[in-house]
Amino acid sequence: MRYPLYREARSRITLPSGRPIEDFTLPQLQAGRLAAGDLGIHEETLREQARIAEAAGFAPLARNLERAAELTRLPDAKILEIYEALRRGGRGAVLEALAREIEEAYGARLTAAFLREAATPEP
Amino acid sequence: MTGERSTGSRRARERAAQPVRKDTTIHEWPEAGLVLMRGPADPPSTVRVQQGRVVELDGRSERDFDSIDRFIARHAIDPKVAEEAMAVPPREMARRLFHPDVAAAEVRRLFGGLTPARLVEVMAELDVLEMMLALRKMRLRNRVANQAHVTNLRDHPALLAADAAEAGLRGFAEVETTVGVAGMAPLNAVAILIGSQVGRPGVLTQAAVEEGINLRLAMKGLVSYAETLSVYGDEESFRDGDDTPWSKAFLASAYASRGVKVRFTSGSGSEVLLGHARGRSMLYLEARCILLVKGAGSQGVQNGGISCIALPLSLPGGIRGVLAENLIAASVGLEVASGNDAMASHSEMRKTAKLMLQLIPGTDFVTSGYSVMPRQDNLFGGGNFDANDLDAWTLVQRDLGLDGGITPVGEDEVRRVRRRAALAVQAVWMETGLPTIDDAEVDAAVDARDSGDLPPRARSADVAAARRFLESPATVLDLAAALSRTGFSHEAEALLALTRQRAAGDYLQPAGILIADGTDLVAVSAVNDPHVYGGPGTGCGVEGERRRQLEDVPFAVDPRALGRAGEAPEIFEEGGAARPGHALEVVVAVGPAFGRRLGATLAGLSHREVVERVLEGVGQEQVPARLVRVRHTADCAFIGHEGARLSGSGVAIGIQSRGTAVIHRRDLAPLDNLELLSHAPNLTGDSYRTLGRNAACYALGKPTEPVPVRIDNTARLKHIVQSTLLHRVEVEAATPGAPPLELSLRAERQRA
Questions:
Q1: What integer pLDDT is reported at residue B752 of this predicted model?
Q2: What is the mean pLDDT of residues A78-107?
Q3: Do the Cβ atoms of B72 and B292 come closer than 8 Å?
Q4: Contact at 8 Å (CB) between B743 and B629?
Q5: Which CATH topology does B140-223+364-534 take?
């Protein structure tokens, strides 16, 4: 298994902006060529970490990292909005609307299913 | 029933005033949930799987599930192994759990199918030693680590940075802070981020503050892990916190989406504290928490009582119960930060007894928060162990030959990184327009005991600046740029290296931490550094460089230096072979190295002083004294007895170089004596004078009172090493068969 990715597969890691991780250096910073968009983790890296977790026997962590990969596309404010909605005990209509929104706008299929599950007890 | 009152003997009253009696100790009250295991409302353990779906859990079928059951059934219990695992009787499962011949991976596979009630039934089969063996086997990460608390009452940035640097230097893998004033969160996070990287690049940091703020700090790249996600094993308790299993799980994904490591928090006692235990045991409710944490996809948990630790510890089996929490978490595949953070007892003995259960097996983080500063500055309500305990901790590691995650370091190095960290935040504060940190504050932060030693700051200006910083677009990149512009390029590089790791996400794997890899960083976790234990000779040993590091506590001294005599005193002129006397006299016989290779006793008295006082005492009774050196033995009794054989009166004093002295008489067996002064470290000039006088009295046949001896039970403890080393010189100086020599005391040289 190629882990740690940073040592074993560095050339495949990209910054959230899509630039290679090798660009994340002090000279680049000093030249003013690093920006907030370069901070964080790319969704494909999270999916790769999910595969690593799954293979190592940590399946629920893998599911979490897959949801996280989807959430990289969501703006901070949307994330906080969803969290607040879930906290209120997950009212069905509100969560359903959010689920539909993130599915359509961000392709967050897994997270949408998770919100629906929170809203509706199964039979 | 009332507790025993302390109206009895003086001893009982004194015992009742000991620190341990400030701990509240109660009997079980199972109906109220004040019980560690086997609560009256704990359900029977059952599971039923239909079409790959868990439809019955611990005596409840799907339609009666509460939200926690529903979450656990859906996300935590592996339907593929549930029926197989539940068919293994609890005692047999307990045996497999602790036995080194059953691999951890196989245990973990089976534990993936166990229900909360069954997890408790398995734990109930194990005593603490078996649990410790099991915990060692099941720990995720090979390398034992530790987490530090860094806070102070004033939220002082220079002190936070200095303390975080010290934590990094001492080997803590994670450093967490919280706030005195809520608004300070952003700047506290920045201070420990910069400070920790000065101490050791790769330290992960977090700020335990409100989730919304914490997420924003995460998004700015200012924190790299989050441990604030508390869960409960009871629905009502969740509702009190305005949360659900899904909201917490969503939060875990949200943090991960920003490259932040997540650890949940649980621990026995929280539900009963909130009034929702309803006859269920603490461990059953905690087992629900642990499976919820696993189901949410957290890589780990901090548990083992945590902030409620004093509650389980008030009950029978409390320490065993919280050990069981740690063990359940490790067994289901979670990283464990195993408590030992909040104050567990007033008694050092009880605190240490509890600590051993995690320290000896080793856990991913032995404490969930070791207070690097004195506990008075600990805003977590923590400080079970604090700055003053660091030397004891490192010595216990050395004693037991194990790694508890704290590296001994010298004070010069500590002061160096503290200053560097304080200067770095001073520069960043200046460069980014935050309220000035002046040189006096930097100086004070380096050597402060606590925040009371720092000059006061204008809190309102700091809070306003913290708010502006949070609202601004500033990120970790701005901090790195400020560091590089102000001569802290090494620190700037460290922040970028840490942030690169965020992009790689390797530390999101279970038990992930960062260590140095050349000039860069690399993650170690359960994936690339799993703990594999299969009996003696396997598992994480402490070898090579790490062993040397752990043994080299800075206050250890070279015994070769301790045993050296210093300047050779040569206080005697040696004459010919000593002849037996025939007149009334007291012989004063000294050991082979006395006044020659060695110059002073354990009490620090010079050998000249000892001889002069003895002669003075003998002289008080107008009895002549004769000095001889016994050369064939270093043993005090034989030195004295040899002197007695030579003495005209048959009475002699024998004195070893370390100061031990005896009054002997020719007709006694060598190991018998008239008086023995064995407490050499407590002997004074007066003791030796009285000894001399008593010896003269014995020679004259006059009655006398024995030399008064002060009892100091710590004397041996304090002096045994020095005593050993002095005696070694005496033994080396002895020459078998060499006859005793006459001695005379040289005139004292003029003192300069």
A1: 41
A2: 90
A3: yes
A4: yes
A5: TIM Barrel (3.20.20)
A49, A52, A71 ranked by CB distance to B254: nearest: A71
From CA B45, how far away is CA B262, in angstroms rounded? 30
- Please check whether residues A93 and A120 belong to one and the same domain: yes
DSSP one-letter string for B171-198: T-SEEEE--SSGGGHHHHHHHHHHHHHH
Predicted pLDDT at B170: 98
What are the domain boundaries of chain B? 29-138+225-337, 140-223+364-534, 562-745
CA distance A116 to chain B (A): 10
Chain B residues within 8 A of A24 when measuring between CB atoms: 496, 499-500, 503
Is B506 in Cβ contact with A3 (below 8 Å)?
Answer: yes
Q: What is the pLDDT of residue B571?
A: 93
In this model, does residue A99 exceed pLDDT 80?
yes
- Which B residues in the span 570-599 are in contact with A, Cβ-Cβ below 8 Å? none
Report yes or no on whether pTM surpasses 0.80. Answer: yes
Of B75, B258, B521, the CB nearest to A40: B258
Q: Note whether A24 and A4 are same-domain residues.
A: yes
Give the residue numbers of B marked as catalytic: 147, 149, 176, 227, 302, 341, 368
Q: What is the largest CA-CA distance in chain A?
A: 59
Say yes or no: domain B29-138+225-337 is CATH 3.20.20.350. yes
- B204-214 pLDDT, tens digit per residue, is 999 999 888 99
User: What is the interface size between A and B, counted as CB pairs within 8 Å?
Assistant: 200
CA dihedral B464, B470, B472, B473 (to 10 degrees): 160
Residue of A nearest to B253 (CA): A68
Amino acid occupying residue B408? P
Q: Same structural domain for residues A13 and A33?
A: yes
Whether A99 and A123 share a structural domain: yes
| Boundary-marking domain end, from A47, A72, A97 | A72
Contact A61 B253 (CB under 8 A): no
H/E segment holding residue B744: strand B741-745
Q: How close A60 gets to chain B, by Cα (Å)?
A: 4
ipTM of predicted assembly, 2 dp: 0.97
**Interface contact A29-B484, CB threshold 8 A:** yes
Query: What pLDDT does residue B709 have?
Result: 82
A62 and A88 both lie in a single domain? no
Question: What is the distance between the alpha carbons of residues B423 and B442, in angstroms, rounded to a whole number?
Answer: 7
* Residue with token string 């914490």: B214
Q: Is A26 found in the same domain as A39? A: yes
Contact B362, B402 (CB under 8 A): yes
Residues of the domain holding A3: 1-72
Cβ of B212 and A6 within 8 Å?
no
d(CA A62, CA B541): 31
Which pLDDT value is given to residue B305? 85
Topology alike, domains B29-138+225-337 and B562-745: no
Domain identity same for A56 and A21? yes
Q: How many CB atoms lie within 10 A of CB A13?
A: 22
| A-chain residue closest to B219, CA distance | A40
| Domain at B562-745: CATH code | 3.40.50.10150
- Residue pair B391/B169 in contact by the 8 Å Cβ criterion: no
Give contacts of A60 with chain B, Cβ < 8 Å: 75-76, 294-297
Q: Tell me the pLDDT tens digit for each residue of B227-240.
A: 989 999 999 888 88
Read off the pLDDT of residues B655-712 as tens digits, 9 standing for 90 and up: 999 999 999 999 999 999 999 998 888 899 999 999 999 999 999 999 999 998 888 8
Residue of A nearest to B106 (CA): A57
Residues A59 and A106 in one domain: no
Number of domains present in the structure of chain A = 2
In which residue ranges of chain B is pLDDT below 50?
751-752
- Pick B527's closest partner by Cβ from A3, A34, A36: A3
Look at residue A123 in the predicted model and tell me its pLDDT: 42
Whether B254 sits inside 8 A of A83 (CB atoms) is yes
How far apart CA B264 and CA A3 sit, in angstroms, is 24
